[in-house]
């Protein structure tokens, strides 16, 4: 298990670093063993990371003819995860593919609920009101929908896998219509700015209240950070760190995925490139300062 991550203690806070994000399942398992109930997850990432666990593995096994029922095989892999057994967890990590680790964790009892602050899906987990509006649009086309256009605050149905990707509009205060590459770049610069995180956490609070959680940050949670969420030096050096530092301080532990190839592919500032190793040093410095 310990070969899957590097572990640090920064002023008493456990920090686990993995190169590939799905290996964070091993670290989350060790954290789970220290808690009375499954902790929640607040993750900051470029991607949503909401694929079903073992989807890629099951597809390959079926494609190769070793499995007759792909979905039954996939579900069996999830059911076989025993978070109290190192070999079981290591086997799961070996067979997980990209973006499947959160589903594996919530469906196996390692995590409770997961809330994903992300940059790749503006609609994210749709609200009940949005679903009703979209259905009305489809049923009444080309006439106007009979349902009103959704306005916040919204309500949400519990997700079967307890994973919720938080929606976004753009950077705070953006008035561009339609949104363009320039404003999306500015949004990515705000990923850990207080004004942006406060907006995301308010959206998360709408979800948490809908599913019976009084406060998104009240329950024990792991703060998970994928370094591919940072697309520029500006993004990793926010002007106001107060909310981000609060999330660090109150987390039961912090996990960091370096994802070096994704960092390189998603980086926007060609004149001032940063590799994952430098981003990691700056993130560890943030954690130290927050504590």
Can you tell me about this structure?
Helix content is 41%, strand content 12%. The chain has a 7-stranded mixed sheet, with helices on both faces. The protein is globular and about 55 Å long. It is α/β, with parallel strands linked by helices. It has one domain. The protein contains 12 helices and 7 strands.
Strand and helix map with partners:
Layout: E1 6-10, E2 13-18, H1 24-32, E3 40-44, H2 55-63, H3 70-79, H4 86-95, H5 101-108, E4 114-117, H6 128-140, E5 163-165, H7 181-189, H8 194-210, E6 221-226, H9 233-236, H10 242-250, E7 253-257, H11 260-266, H12 276-290
Parallel strand pairs: 2-7, 3-4, 3-6, 4-5, 6-7
Antiparallel strand pairs: 1-2
Quick recap of the structure?
The protein is of the alpha/beta class and 291 residues long. It contains 12 helices and 7 strands. It has a 7-stranded mixed beta sheet, sandwiched between helices.
Rg, rounded, reads: 20 Å
Read across the widest sheet, the strand sequence of neighbours is 1-2-7-6-3-4-5
Task: Sketch the major β-sheet.
Answer: 7 strands, mixed
Structural domains: how many: 1
User: Order of SSEs, N→C?
Assistant: EEHEHHHHEHEHHEHHEHH
Query: Strand share of the residues?
Result: 5-15%
Given as residue ranges, the uncertain stretches (5+ residues, pLDDT < 50) are none
CA-CA gap between termini: 27 Å
The overall pLDDT, averaged over residues, is 95
Number of E-type strands: 7
The number of helical segments is: 12
Structural class: alpha/beta
| Global geometry | globular
Helix content: 40-55%
């Amino acid at each position: 298990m310990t070969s899957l991550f590097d572990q640090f203690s920064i002023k008493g806070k456990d920090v686990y670093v993995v190169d590939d994000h799905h290996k964070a399942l091993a670290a989350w398992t060790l954290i789970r063993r220290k808690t009375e109930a499954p902790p929640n997850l607040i993750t900051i990432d470029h991607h949503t990371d909401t694929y079903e666990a073992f989807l890629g593995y099951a597809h390959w096994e079926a494609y190769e003819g070793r499995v007759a029922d792909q979905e039954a095989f996939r579900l069996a892999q999830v059911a076989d995860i025993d978070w109290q057994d190192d070999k079981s967890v290591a086997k799961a990590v070996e067979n997980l593919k990209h973006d499947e680790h959160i589903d594996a964790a919530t469906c196996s009892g390692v995590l409770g609920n997961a809330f994903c602050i992300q940059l790749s899906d503006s609609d994210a987990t749709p609200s009940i009101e949005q679903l009703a509006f979209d259905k009305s649009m489809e049923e009444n086309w080309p006439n106007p929908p009979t349902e009103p256009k959704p306005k916040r605050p919204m309500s949400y149905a519990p997700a079967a896998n307890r994973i919720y990707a938080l929606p976004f509009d753009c950077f705070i205060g953006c008035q561009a219509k339609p949104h363009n590459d320039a404003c999306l770049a500015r949004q990515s610069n705000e990923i850990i700015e207080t004004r942006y995180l406060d907006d995301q956490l308010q959206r998360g609070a709408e979800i948490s209240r809908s599913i019976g959680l009084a406060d998104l940050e009240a329950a024990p949670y792991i703060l998970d950070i994928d370094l591919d969420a940072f697309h520029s030096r500006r993004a990793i050096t926010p002007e106001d760190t107060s909310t981000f530092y609060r999330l660090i301080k109150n987390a039961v532990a912090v996990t960091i995925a370096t994802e070096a190839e994704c960092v390189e592919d998603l980086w926007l500032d060609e004149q001032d490139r940063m590799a994952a190793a430098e981003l990691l040093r700056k993130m560890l410095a943030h954690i130290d300062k927050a504590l």
